[in-house]
Specification:
The structure is a homodimer of 239-residue chains. By secondary structure, chain A is an alpha/beta fold. In chain A, 45% of the residues lie in helices and 13% in strands. In chain A, helix 7 runs antiparallel to helix 8.
Chain lengths: 239, 239
């Protein structure tokens, strides 16, 4: 098959590198500004640009027989509805430049304008990955929100922890085994059942001593607000 | 050496199992209520009970030559100051019953009543682990607070994500590669530098669409408050 990937960001680059290693796929990376080199015989054109630019790029693609899909978690399939066969090809991962990934367990969430298109897009994702799911635009938005909590917000909490550790002479590495084990536990029980810590024990003595340390450390008010809000949310969720 | 571990919870059980496999260590697990079987020739007595019970248990230990240390992250070393040689032997990990751990990279944070005691406690931790650190009571409290953000609060965010995923027909497993990669990234860059997502991009369009989905999903008000607070904290931290 012939695959054109429009974009030059992290997702486009990773998908390009992944498909380059697949037999029987001819893959080209296309500059989103010029669209130079678009193959008139392409079977699939992936638009992997920032959410705001998707419709603009799609409008500039010459009419042809290719399926057209975007790779965005939070953009509706309808953005591409001016095309004949269109869809969404969403890889759920945090992509960084230069960081090697194992694509075989990369989850893809697929939506097509019709059943044949959905099936074709699933087949293409299946060339890379064992984890291909169907998801409509609402489900995909929920996936994106869930990922925001589970990845972006989590990373921010790690950043807060990193600050506290560094202020006390330790590196983030001292908590790595703890974090790895916290994640591993969710493979054998749900995060709900895996909850530990002073909040779920309603251990107000420890909570007060934590708040005193935070206040003595002159941390930003946000950091204390986050402590209080997550503590009360854990208590409420588990009572 | 002769090691008595007072306690019967997860930490006590894990430490007992870990030291059982070390040559030249004779380890006993002691019931914290009866203290039956305490060895008068013990070199070290570890008190691994709930924070509130440490001083009470310590007061009941017959006077002898053993060093006495507790294993708590948030309890001062002074709790044991009625003893001759005392300290803290704090393993930074989340311990679950029946879950096998690799003890060789388990970080221990050690504090002793004097230099010789600190050194001896470090040597004992070194029998299990390559990662032995010294930490005074303030540093250890900061470690405990950092772990609360990095482990307990993170787990709660994963629980929120799990709920959203399940409501939309997906299991937590679909985000596991994302979470694993999010953690892996912090090994090559700081969590601060690894931050991604709509908040750091100030992508208000996506943020608004997330908030709409949360509100349409009738989630608890806390969940929305957490979204707003973490989003604004990320924006503030990175601007």
């Amino acid at each position: 098959m012939i695959l054109d990937i429009i974009g030059r960001g992290n997702v486009a680059t990773h998908l390009y590198n992944a498909f380059r290693n697949i037999n029987d796929v001819t893959v080209n990376m296309i500059n989103p500004h010029t669209l130079a080199g678009l193959n008139p015989n392409a079977d699939l054109i992936l638009i992997s640009v920032s959410d705001n630019a998707i419709s603009e790029v799609a409008a500039k693609i010459p009419e042809g027989s290719a399926m057209i899909a975007h790779t965005s978690g939070s953009t509706s399939i309808d953005t591409l509805s001016d095309n004949k066969r269109y869809g969404v090809f969403y890889p759920l991962q945090t992509f960084s430049k230069g960081k090697v990934l194992n694509y075989s367990d990369l989850p893809f969430f697929i939506e097509g304008s019709d059943e044949a298109t959905t099936k074709s897009l699933c087949d293409v994702a299946g060339l890379l990955s064992n984890k291909t799911f169907r998801a409509d635009s609402n489900q995909r938005r929920a996936l994106h929100v869930a990922s925001t909590y589970a990845c972006n917000f989590v990373n921010h909490l790690w950043s807060i922890a990193d600050d506290l550790l560094q202020k006390n002479g330790f590196s983030f590495e001292v908590v790595r085994p703890l974090l790895q084990e916290t994640l591993s536990k969710t493979a054998v029980m749900s995060p709900f059942d895996a909850q530990t810590g002073p909040a779920i024990r309603k251990d107000t003595k420890t909570i007060d001593s934590h708040l005193k340390l935070l206040s003595d450390s002159n941390v930003d008010k946000d950091i204390i607000d986050i402590y209080n809000l997550l503590t009360s949310s854990i208590i409420k969720t588990h009572s």
